[in-house]
Amino acid sequence: MELSLKNKNAVVCGSTRGIGLAIAKELALAGANCILFARNEGLLKEIVHRLPGNSGQEHDYRVADFSEPAAVKAAIESVVSKINIHILINNTGGPPPGPIAEASADTFENAFRQHIIISQLLAQCVLPGMKKEGYGRIINIISTSVKIPLNNLGVSNTIRAAVAAWAKTLSNETGQYNITVNNILPGSTKTDRLDNLIEETVKKEHTGREMVEKEMTDKIPLKRFGLPEEIANVAAFLASPAASYVNGASIPVDGGRTGSI
Ligand SMILES: NC(=O)c1ccc[n+]([C@@H]2O[C@H](COP(=O)([O-])OP(=O)(O)OC[C@H]3O[C@@H](n4cnc5c(N)ncnc54)[C@H](OP(=O)(O)O)[C@@H]3O)[C@@H](O)[C@H]2O)c1
User: Fold this and answer.
1) Of the candidates 40, 9, 14, 85, which has an alpha carbon nearest to the alpha carbon of residue 228?
2) Atom number in ligand 1 closest to CA 156
3) Fewer CB atoms near the end CB (10 Å): N or C, the chain?
4) Domain boundaries for CATH 3.40.50.720 within the chain
5) pLDDT tens, position by position, 151-193
């Protein structure tokens, strides 16, 4: 099975923490040159130096706030003017929790901008290079809420479904160029995002952290939270030549929590 990403260039978004950081590490370990996108320049600099580089790769970064499409466009254009990108990992912070009936128009607009407009803009910028290379992997980090909406994540549920529809449509158009588009649907994964969601529940329900965590893990057949590395392993496979016939798929990586076939 060909899993090497040697001589492949990857843009990894939201890669200073959590799932995005784990994906950057895994892609670098497989030999890819990684260009990291996120807001925190201090962390970006540090991570670029720490990423594995056993295949003599050069890693780089761009500071980009995904709530500002013009700035993100300038950043990705500065990358694709120099090199062709083979792998794009669309990933950013999740929308704030809360019941959908209480969500403001602003919250919906921000989420739409960060998750749909930015993914579209990045894809449009990398697609010409992927076509030239005859190799493309667009991987979107979404959520299992694509299959079954999650309680208290109203805006997130709505926007994830939109991303999944966007991705499926794109996969129908790009498959003919050997450019695949797939979604990873993480379950509860140990990151800052999960920590914050647990803390919100603790406050809202005036209960203890252990109790909240137990209630959550009881619903997972594997009886534990996932690790960012477990999501990253699937991303690295989807990015590799070995995943050549996987296209337009939404793959839950959730310890079996999602109750649909
Ligand atoms: N963890 C879970 O249990 C879980 C489950 C299902 C789905 N997900 C989804 O998977 C994605 C990643 O989750 P995670 O847990 O790894 O999140 P996380 O720990 O909060 O990390 C988010 C990453 O995105 C970057 N980011 C956030 N806002 C940004 C912005 N406006 N512009 C550019 N970069 C931004 C952050 O870096 P900077 O702060 O440096 O910008 C960070 O690197 C999210 O969409 C999340 O909702 C997570």
Assistant:
1) 14
2) 47
3) C
4) 9-187+227-253
5) 999 999 999 999 999 999 999 999 999 999 999 999 999 999 9
